[in-house]
From TrEMBL, chain A:
UniProt KW tRNA processing keyword: no
Family the entry assigns: Belongs to the binding-protein-dependent transport system permease family. HisMQ subfamily.
ABC transmembrane type-1 domain sequence ranges: 29-227
One Gene Ontology term from the biological process aspect of the record: amino acid transport
Places the protein is found: Cell inner membrane; Cell membrane
Protein's name in the database: Amino acid ABC transporter permease
Transmembrane segments: 29-53, 65-86, 106-124, 144-165, 201-223
CDD domains: TM_PBP2 (cd06261)
Keywords: Cell membrane, Membrane, Transmembrane, Transmembrane helix, Transport
Principal location listed in the UniProt entry: membrane
UniProt-listed SUPFAM superfamilies: MetI-like
The keyword Cell membrane appears for this protein: yes
Membrane topology label: Multi-pass membrane protein
From TrEMBL, chain B:
Organism expressing this protein natively: Blastochloris sulfoviridis
Physiological role: Part of the ABC transporter complex GltIJKL involved in glutamate and aspartate uptake. Probably responsible for the translocation of the substrate across the membrane.
Keywords, alphabetical: Amino-acid transport, Cell membrane, Membrane, Transmembrane, Transmembrane helix, Transport
InterPro entries: AA_ABC_transptr_permease_3TM, ArtM/GltK/GlnP/TcyL/YhdX-like, MetI-like, MetI-like_sf
NCBIfam families hit by this protein: HEQRo_perm_3TM
Main localization, broad class: membrane
Stated name of the protein: Glutamate/aspartate import permease protein GltK
Automatic annotation (TrEMBL), chain C:
Protein name: Amino acid ABC transporter substrate-binding protein
Organism: Blastochloris sulfoviridis
Keyword vocabulary terms for this entry: Amino-acid transport, Periplasm, Signal, Transport
Record-linked SUPFAM superfamilies: Periplasmic binding protein-like II
Signal peptide: 1-21
Entry similarity comment: Belongs to the bacterial solute-binding protein 3 family.
GO BP: amino acid transport
Length: 245, 230, 301
């Protein structure tokens, strides 16, 4: 194997003029986290709204929510990113399109928007599944007490739904972090992109990818343990969530 | 903008898009589905095995694969596979691995981790009594699994497996990062060559949508049918 | 640096030794055993290695490579030697060469001393310079005009590395995007995602000439560097390199280079029948007269 191992490469200065290759990877980590957290917040807000709409006893909101979920779920994320990045600015009025394109950090905003919509469809599905999983009696009891539909959702259904769907939401959040790497195709310099350019500049393929791999594993561990702690601390005695160790 | 929408560019490139691009995407999806189902089942059996080393190994594999972004894994394997091939076969030089083979191995190994999780849940849903009963009948481990547990587990898991397959179909578009001409790669090549991005990317999105939507609608019907039978 | 010089010297010493009837090693042995040779090609390095409208890989570097393949076929007496094509990008070509996926990389790869630590190069087949293309309407002439702007270059190239360094040294504050290939880089400039696309000028000519509106673009007069192109092969493989070098030198001294050069740079080329109209530069004419595989830009001045 004529591969020249060089683990000291991380401390060598990167050709970008500031810091070492390790700093380069760290800036990638920063963008990965910034993108996925921003997209996740967007996905949670939209996902909960759409998911709730889908379970509403009204036809039009439910149909809208159904179309929304199917649209964002059935197109590959990479294609959605291309649509937002390359196609959308061409379809809006020219001045607005030019403004969009020349925005600094355009890949970041585009990545957040596409990843946010893509993930929100998945969150919406989890929310719907969570509402469907609750005994019908809860909704009926709420209505019988004279609560409005909003109040039923706000005080009766959603507090339970959030607890039920915490585990699947954890894995959706992890997916969101992983999926942020797709944005390297539109020029976002996140962790995978940084590992790739480190490989290109230094030719140390395996060192660069090993470092990225370890960082992703570390993020996973932190998120998994954090969410487990959250699950435990909000668990309602007597429900499935509470018996988990 | 839609005024100068050029449908002709789509029509002209249809044969290339479908006979090369979509053929590549579907072959890749089909073969890696077959491979990852087999491998995923094996990994699931290892995870549930009473031999601790085996189950730890399988668990580590599944967790590692699920912790990493697919894009990173695609890069890893594209560069690493020839060395692995050399190590496995004991050859004197790295084994030559073509772009398609490399993508196939990558997706098989990656999806196997996801299928293993589905499979494990499926196997665990079978009542323990059935295994005890099979053992009482004198069946070996492989007979128990092959004739009693797996057929039932598969049936229960079909909707989940199909849903995961739709995700796999969409994920294959990521080979774009290696410049391998799958359906999206073919579309973007035409788009860049003819300066027709809007048309080609919208068309690609529509094709992916129609296929995935039709498939997931079918899965939902299937799910309901299975639910009724039970 | 020192190590690479020693390695280069050793490489030269080995090349000088006659590669006659002794036992086959390295790539030649592999080609003989498999009966195939794998060529790594690009998808939008016009006119070096790219897809035509029937999705066939063509180009100047491909023509040269097929001459090398012929030489290998004769050398190994393998009349039915099969050629396999494998697409590569700027980012994947070096790892794929090192891991044995491709045997020759025929495209537009800059031969420099840094890369020679990882891979080998045969005789230089073109000399170009690092420049940038932008829209005429934006009136961007020098690097200073790009201050604070978003620009793009292709990931994995010497160009993006260089523009990153210049950006830091001269404190230009540019945002530098990395495109997957040249077509994508040009596209980002074309769609105003980036103000300029930094790349080898010859590739910029090819991309601009083949774009929807060739007259909208202008290539900067400032050259950032000199870039000799070489066909890439594995490092430390003197036997294979000797055969490849011989084929290249033969192409130059026999005059076979003339029609090939004319075909790609002085005549209409697919897919649009554009004529690049670029007579052989002085620097490259010198290489043809005195073939060299040097990765030092100073050797081409």
């Amino acid at each position: 194997m004529n591969y020249h191992w060089n683990w000291a490469i991380f401390w060598e200065p990167s050709p970008e003029g500031w810091g070492s290759y390790a700093d380069m990877l760290m800036s990638g980590l920063y963008w990965t986290l910034a993108t996925s957290i921003a997209a996740w917040i967007m996905a949670l807000v939209l996902g909960v709204i759409v998911g709730v709409l889908r379970t509403m006893p009204y036809r039009i909101p439910a149909a809208f929510a159904y179309a929304y979920v199917e649209l964002f779920r059935n197109i590959p994320l990479l294609v959605q990113m291309f649509l937002w990045f390359f196609v959308m600015p061409e379809l809006v009025p020219e001045d607005f399109g030019r403004w969009l394109k020349q925005m600094p950090n355009a890949p970041f905003y585009t990545a957040v928007i596409s990843l946010g919509f893509f993930t929100s469809a998945r969150v919406a599905e989890q929310v719907r599944a969570g509402v469907d999983a609750l005994p019908r009696g809860q909704r009926m009891a709420g209505t019988a007490l004279g609560l409005t539909l909003t109040q039923v959702y706000r005080y009766v259904l959603m507090p339970m739904v959030f607890r039920i769907i915490l585990p699947p939401l954890t894995s959706e959040f992890l997916n969101c972090i992983k999926n942020s790497s797709v944005a390297l195709t539109i020029g976002l310099m996140e962790l995978t992109a940084r590992a790739r350019s480190m490989q290109e500049f230094s030719f140390q393929v395996f060192e660069a990818f090993t470092a990225a791999t370890l960082l992703y594993v570390a993020i996973n561990l932190v998120v998994t343990f954090g969410m487990r702690w959250l699950e435990k601390s909000v668990a309602v005695p007597g429900y499935i969530g509470s018996s988990r160790t | 903008m839609f005024a100068d929408f050029d449908f002709d560019v789509i029509v002209r490139s249809l044969p290339y898009l479908f006979f090369h691009g979509m053929a590549f995407t579907l072959t890749l999806t089909g073969l890696s589905l077959a491979g990852s189902l087999v491998l995923g089942t094996l990994v699931a059996l290892m995870q549930l095995s009473s031999i601790r080393a085996l189950s730890l190994l399988a668990m580590g594999y599944v967790n590692l694969m699920r912790a990493l972004p697919l894009v990173l894994i695609i890069f890893w394997f594209y560069f690493l596979l020839p060395w692995i091939g050399q190590w496995v076969t004991g050859a004197s030089r790295p084994i030559q691995v073509g772009a398609f083979t490399s993508a196939l191995v990558t997706f098989t190994l990656f999806e196997a981790a996801y299928f293993a999780e589905i499979m494990r849940a499926g196997i665990q849903s079978i009542p323990k009594g059935q295994i005890a009963a099979s053992q009482a009948l004198g069946m070996t481990y492989w007979q128990t699994m092959g004739h009693v547990v797996l057929p039932q587990a598969f049936r229960a898991m079909i909707p989940l497996i199909l849903t995961q397959t739709i995700i796999l179909f969409q994920d294959t578009s990521l080979v774009y990062v290696l410049s391998i001409p799958d359906f999206l790669g073919a579309a973007s090549k035409v788009a860049q060559r003819d300066g027709r991005l809007v048309e080609m990317y919208l068309f690609a999105a529509a094709v992916y949508f129609i296929i995935s939507f039709a498939a997931s609608t079918y899965v939902r019907h299937l799910q309901m049918r299975i639910a009724v039978v039970r | 640096m020192k190590r690479s010089l020693i390695a280069a010297a050793m490489g030269l010493a080995l090349v000088a030794a006659p590669a006659g009837a002794e036992e086959l090693t390295g790539t030649l042995k592999k080609i003989k055993e498999l009966g195939t040779i794998t060529i790594g090609h690009r998808d939008s390095s016009i006119p070096f290695s790219y897809y035509d409208d029937r999705q066939q890989v063509i180009g100047y570097a491909m023509d040269l490579c097929y001459r090398i393949v012929d030489a290998v076929r004769d050398e190994l007496k393998l009349p039915d030697l099969k050629v396999v094509l494998n697409p590569v990008t700027s980012a994947t070509r070096i790892p794929l060469m090192a891991n044995g996926t491709i045997d020759l990389e025929c495209g537009s790869t800059t031969n420099n001393l840094e890369r020679q630590k990882q891979v080998g190069f045969t005789i230089t087949h073109f000399v170009t310079a690092n420049r940038f293309v932008s829209k005429k309407a934006n009136n961007l002439k020098t690097l200073d005009d790009l201050k604070g702007k978003t620009i793009v270059s292709t990931s994995g190239t010497a160009n993006i590395k260089q523009i990153n360094q210049i950006n830091a040294e001269r404190n230009l504050g540019m945002t530098i995007l990395a495109a997957k290939d040249h077509a994508e880089g040009f596209l980002m400039m074309e769609t105003d995602r980036a103000a300029a696309f930094v790349m080898d000028d010859i590739l910029l000519y090819g991309l601009a000439a083949n774009s929807k509106a060739p007259n909208d673009y202008v290539i900067s007069a400032d050259a950032l560097s000199v870039e000799p192109y070489g066909i890439m092969l594995r490092r430390d493989d003197p036997q294979f390199k000797a055969v490849v070098d011989k084929a290249m030198i033969n192409t130059y001294t026999s005059g076979a280079i003339e029609p090939i050069y004319k075909k790609w740079f002085l005549a209409p080329i697919p897919p649009r029948g554009v004529n690049l109209n670029l007579p052989m530069s002085e620097a490259f004419a010198k290489v043809v007269a005195n073939p060299t595989d040097s990765g030092d830009p100073a050797a081409y001045k």
